[in-house]
């Protein structure tokens, strides 16, 4: 029950952050709602399609579409004060990352998938929604721009999976995984910790640059 409650809150938060991105690109209200819903539900949808897990979560629970749409429309109404709450939304986004990761792991574990697929399913659920948002906004996804995001998701998934494999209480493992994942993501935001970047500048006369 706790996980589901936090999951719904995280869906709303993800939809609101996506709505702000839509507003910065002058999208109409329909575009705002679509971008909000795709961002919030896209990771879980991609996971379910890849794993053959049906019905999709928002098909089974249509109320989730109402949550994401309502959150996006609410953002239009209060957009003027949203920038003042930027840090709060970054923290809510961190909560969403770890919660979505755990939900994705649960789905894969219930299907009896091996450890690697469980971890990947968690990462897809946690990260792909943001990638879809950036692609629809014609941006390079933040996930590929140095953000310490997928790594946090992978660590969260590993803690959650192996904690359960070791026979620890499920709720305790969930809370520990959420706390550690949230803490890591928050530290990355506050101290601007990023993944190493690969910067390649072709030298003059490099044949590969002429292709």
TrEMBL record:
Membrane-spanning intervals of the chain: 63-81, 88-109, 115-136, 148-166, 172-191
InterPro entries noted in UniProt: Gly_transporter
Membrane topology classification: Multi-pass membrane protein
Name listed for the protein in its UniProt record: Membrane protein
Any one Pfam family match given in the protein's UniProt record, by short name: Gly_transporter
UniProt-listed PANTHER family: INNER MEMBRANE PROTEIN (PTHR30506), UPF0126 INNER MEMBRANE PROTEIN YADS-RELATED (PTHR30506:SF3)
Entry keyword Cell membrane: yes
Similarity section: Belongs to the UPF0126 family.
One term under GO cellular component: plasma membrane
Record-annotated Glycine transporter domain positions: 8-79, 91-163
Keywords recorded for this protein, A-Z: Cell membrane, Membrane, Signal, Transmembrane, Transmembrane helix
Domain of life: Bacteria
Localization terms from the record: Cell membrane
Chief location category: membrane
Signal peptide residue numbers: 1-21
């Amino acid at each position: 029950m706790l996980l589901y409650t936090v999951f719904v809150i995280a869906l709303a938060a993800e939809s609101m952050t996506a709505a702000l991105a839509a507003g910065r690109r002058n999208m109409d209200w329909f575009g705002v709602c679509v971008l909000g819903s795709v961002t919030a539900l896209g990771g879980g949808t991609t996971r379910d399609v890849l794993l053959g897990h049906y019905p999709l979560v928002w098909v089974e629970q249509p109320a989730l579409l109402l949550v994401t749409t309502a959150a996006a429309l609410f953002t239009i109404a209060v957009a003027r004060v949203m920038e003042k709450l930027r840090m709060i939304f970054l923290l809510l986004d961190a909560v969403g990352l770890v919660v979505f990761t755990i939900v994705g792991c649960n789905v894969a574990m219930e299907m009896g998938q091996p450890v690697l697929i469980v971890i990947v399913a968690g990462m897809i659920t946690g990260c792909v929604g943001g990638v879809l948002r950036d692609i629809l906004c014609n941006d390079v996804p933040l996930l590929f721009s140095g953000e310490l995001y997928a790594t946090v998701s992978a660590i969260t998934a590993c803690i959650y999976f192996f904690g359960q494999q070791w026979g620890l209480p499920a709720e305790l493992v969930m809370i520990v995984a959420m706390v550690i994942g949230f803490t890591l993501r928050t530290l990355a935001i506050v101290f601007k910790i990023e993944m190493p970047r690969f910067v390649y500048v072709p030298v003059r006369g490099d044949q590969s640059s002429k292709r």
